[in-house]
Amino acid sequence: MRSRKWSRAVLGAGVGVVLAAGALVWLPGLVGGDGRDRPPGPVERAAAAARAGAPAALPDLVALIGDREAWLRGHPDDASAWAELGAAYTERAVRTGAVPDLARAGAALDRSLAVLPADRGNLDARLGLGALAGARGAWKAAKAWGEGVRKADPRRWAAYPLLIDAHDGLGEYPAARKAMESLEELRGGAVVRGRAAQVYRDRGWREDADATALDATALAATDAEGAAAYARLGRFAWERGEPAEALERYGAALRLAPEHGPALAGRARALAALGRTGEAAEEWRAALARQPLPEYLLESGELAESLGLDGDARTAYGRLRAGSWASPADEVARGLLDADHGDPAAAVARLRAAWERGRRSVAVADALGWALHRSGASREALGYARRAVEEGPRSAPFTYHLGEVERALGRTGPARRHLAEALRIHPSFSPLHAPRAREALEALGEPAVTDDALPKDALPGDVPPERASGAGKRT
After folding, report:
1. Cα R_g (the chain), whole angstroms
2. Rounded distance between C-alpha atoms, residue 404 and residue 384, angstroms
3. pLDDT digits (tens, 9 = 90+) for 31-61
4. ∠358-88-296 over CA atoms, to 5°?
C-alpha cells in the first residue's frame, strides 16, 4: 500500500464548496521510480487543494476518499486520517447532494475523536464536525464548533470560513464580516479573495465584489481554483443582468474544468436569458448529469414550463420532490417549489420550521415570505420579504417577491417601484417570473403622482434609498 504523503488535511464548510481546515504537509515534488519528477496524481491534487483551501476536482475528491478508506483498513488508529475522510465525505455530500455521505462523515469524525479526543487537541475533527453541522444547516452547532477551535487556536485560519458560513446562516451579518476580516489578516490567496468577493456581493457592493473576484482569478494556482474563480465572476455578471458577459466567464471556467457543475448551470441560465432556449435545455441536462442539485432541478423545470414543455417540467419537479438533500440551500429550493408549483401551505410549514431552528439567512427569509404570500398571508409575508431585500444582496428575485407582496396588499406605489427595480437589476432574471413581473408592472399602470412626490400609500420603510437621509448600503 502506498505510504501517506500528507497529514492532518481536513476540509471545512464553505459556500457551495468546502475549505481546508487542517495544516497540510506539502511535498514540493513527486519522484517516480526512474528518478524523474512526475505530475501529481488525483489524490495528491486533492491534498494540494485542501492545503490551499480550494475545491478539489470531484474525481480527485473521490480518489482521496478511496485512498483514505484503504489506508484506514490497515491503520484504524489514525485519528488524522479519520478526520480527513469525514471532511471529504462532507464535501462530496454538499457538492453532489449525496445525503448518505453525511452519515458516513459523522461516523468517521466520531471515530477520529474516539482515537484522539477533542480535549487532547483534535482540532481537525472539531472543524470537521463544524463543517458537517453546516452541511446539515445546524448553524448554531457549526458556530459553536468554529468558536471552540478559534478560542483554542486563534490563528487556525480554517476556523474562520466555518464561522462566516455559520453567521450567514443565522443572519448575523456583522459577525460574518468580522470573521472575514480576521481571515484576511491570517491568509491570502485565491480562495480567501474569492471569499471576500462573496462578502462584498452579499452587502450589495457590486464593483468591489467584481474587482476582488477578478483578483481571485489572477491568484488561482490550479485549474480547479481558476474554474471556481471564473464561475464566481460569471455568477456576479448574471446577477447584474449581463448574461452575455456571464456566458463568457462561465466559458472560461469550463475551459479549465469541462465538467464544472456550477459553470454548466450558469451557462444554462445565461443561454436562456439570451433567448437560446434549446441550448439552455441541453446545458441544464449536462449540469444535472454532473450535479443533480435541487436548485438546478427547480430552474430547469421552470425553463421547461416557460416553453410549454409541461412533461419535462413535471419530471424535474418530481425529481426534486422525491429526493432527499444534504444542503440547507436545498430546503429553500424545495420551499420555492411548493410555493409556486405545489402546496404553498406545505412550503410555509417547511420554511417556518427552518426559521425556528435558527436558519435565518436572507434566502430563507425571502422563501418564507414568498410562501406566506402564495398561501394568502401577504401581510405576514411583508416583514420577511422586506428583510431579504434590505439585508441581502441586490437581487432581482428578492425584489420581485417584495413587489408582488406589496401589490397584493394594495400598496401600489412601493409595488410599482420594486417591480420596476427587479427588472432594472436583471430584465431576464427568470424565464418564468420575469415575464410575470412585467405583466404585474403593466397592470399597475402609470403612477398618478408627480415624479418628485412620494406615493400616497408609502410607509416610512418604503422611502427609496435616494430619498432617505444618509447613504444606502449599496453602491
Report:
1. 23
2. 13
3. 344 444 557 788 888 877 776 677 787 888 9
4. 60
